[in-house]
Amino acid sequence: MEQTPMIITSRQNQYVSLAAKLQERKHRQSEGLLRFDGVKLYCEAVLRGVEIEFILLDATLTEAVDAKAKALYGFGLDAVDARILTLSHDVFVKISDENAPEGIICVAKYIDKIHKIATINSRQEILDRLAAPESGRILLCESLRDPGNVGTVVRTAFAFGIDWLVLSDDCADLYNPKTLRGAMGTLFSQKILRVDDLPAAVNILQSKGRRVYAAALDESARQLGSFAFGKEDCAVIGNEGHGLSERMLDACCEKVYIPMAGNAESLNASVAASVLMWEMTRGK
Question: Which residue has the higher pLDDT, 30 or 119?
Fold first, then answer.
């Protein structure tokens, strides 16, 4: 562990400036870096082998951070080989993303080993591999724009043993701070593929023998729970406000709906995804 003992008191410091910029997607993409705040995410990142580039600490909370990490996971700040810089409290608070800062901000490399991107040039090859039976359970998400929803879907997918999440490229950024908080560390382990054409991905999956069910409120839809998902079946959830596109509905083999009591019209997208994932995996 490389320790920098001096206390940084300026936001113009190169590491402080970079960490602040990483709150914006364009800078994350250009640098290939993400940031996450808090002790739990630091510990989860260490456990999952995330490549941490550097760590920023609040000078007034350094001992507390180390003690909390040891209490939660049995290791402290000396568990990672990364540059550690100490900031004055005022500077740290100004760049923190938390309402009640715990005193630690980590900057790490993109997690390319489990988070993949398929474009028009690579889509067929990647999805051919994904369609193989050994790839396991797959949930697809179209146009989920709320990063909190995406984070919750990631967390639930990991809990239910969904092997792959496949996201359309207009879904919220995986490394948005709200996504990271919603996922609560599971983002460091969940396999995720982002594709430039989700209906085309569905067509490829179905051409390889996988059935893909669309979640939709439709008279022709089958009630969830009235049939059993096969081990190679997939499901797709749509946008928070508009559901699935017509092109996506046409691509899927069948529509399913979640039965609801009373006058309820719909569920939050992440809640609906959770119900679907439970149904997909309950007989696993």
Answer: 30
The amino acid at residue 234 is C
Helices vs. strands in the chain: H and E counts, helices first: 11, 13
What the chain holds in terms of domains, given with CATH numbers, is 2-109 (3.30.1330.30), 115-281 (3.40.1280.10)
pLDDT tens figures, 19-52: 999 999 999 999 999 999 999 999 999 999 999 9
Contacts for 51 with CB less than 8 Å, ≥ 6 apart? 108, 109
b vs e for 68-101, b when ≥16 Cβ sit within 10 Å of the residue's Cβ? bbbeebeebbebbebbbbbbeeebbeebbbeeeb
DSSP string, 249-280: HHHSSEEEE----TT-----HHHHHHHHHHHH
Mean pLDDT over 45-73 rounds to: 97
Poorest-confidence range of 53-62, 100-109, 249-258, 275-284?
275-284
Residue 248's contacts (CB-CB under 8 Å, 6 or more residues apart) are 142, 198, 199, 202, 214, 236, 238
